[in-house]
Amino acid sequence: xxxxxxxxxxxGQPEPAxxxxxxxxxxxxxxxxxxxxxxxxxxxAVLAPDARWAxxxxxxxxxxxxxxxxTGAGRVDEAMRAELLDAGFTVTALxxxxxxxxxxxxxxxxxxxxxxxxxxxxxxRPKRVGHTLDSLTTVRGAQPERTWLCPYAPGTYAWWQVxxxxxxxxxxxxxxxxxxxxxxxPALAAAHGVDAASGTPTFWRRTLYRDAAALARVPLRxxxxxxxxxxxxxxxxxxxxxxxARISWIYASSEVGAAIVVHDGxxxxxxxxxxxxxxxxxxxxxxxxxxxxxxxxxxxxxxGAVRTGDRVQVVGDRVLITGxxxxxxxxxxxxxxxxxxxxxxxxxxxxxxxxxxTGRRAPVLGRMVVAEVVPTPHAAxxxxxALDEAALVRWCAGRLPEHAVPRRIRVLTEIPVKETxxxxx
Length: 425
Description:
InterPro entries: AMP-bd_C, AMP-bd_C_sf, AMP-dep_synth/lig_dom, ANL_N_sf. 22% of the residues lie in helices and 31% in strands.
């Protein structure tokens, strides 16, 4: 996947270039052209109950340029609804029985061509970030024909990345996974010939954990990871299953857009990418262990250097993204511990499918490192040991400084996942 140089907005074209691409929603094959026709107020905050309505709203914006905030119906609680109405949006709930509109008390003029995204809210309540269809369309030029899987929640940045590819590029088919299909998506993907899929590391780990054999039957030629820190263990597991595929990881956010793309099969990005000027490309920097990005794909009002809130560490010739600044660092008796690096040590264990590392209050030290893990099913025991707390502590003790070794490790039976396909690690 190659990022393109931004171009001026073209909102309002009669039909987008990919309008005749097939889209599979709810197991039914349609085309973009065959999606329901909508009549939307402007500005509209559209609450979509499922993928069909979400895609219809995306196509409506591509044709008409109506100011739009699109999200899944379940993401908007009463407080968010009130916030949207106060910001001048007409809140529109779509459904087969028609559209239900709630009008704002103080209407305002619409901004043609504006698209709004709600952030994931991982650091608090979701925020609105402004974009256009062009700033969200970062892949341009001739592309090999692909059938893309889209498992993301409607209206998120990752959702728009996959959707704009199909909407604007001929030959880019789309298979959308509804929430109730997530557990068995490989069967759906295999049935519809999916050969390219994008998901978070948790999405891929959960699929490997549930049925690696079913995943191997999907004819994937392109695998993409993003939305969370990407470690070497998950890249290696996917490479073992799909040795001929291209495996990429992307750093992207609503604020700075798709800013980093790595295809070399290694976690992190090369150190020599830091502070490297390149016209039309993001500039990556590190300040006080925080990733700072100046990006041409930024959201409205976010020009210039943006502090991402993500913690990075330079290890050898790579820059590793370890987690959020406010949650990655654990202070153990005055010594700093990266929760992300401890997590990477745990997931490197051949019998660990997933791990989460946090800090817990402790006497004398102030905080201690604790973890949760999910074992890999049907894996052969490592060096003859059962996978229990004591064995994992020994594994970590041989690879981490003493203050970074988890003091409590709880074994779970299922990989937790949120609507965003993240585990909140």
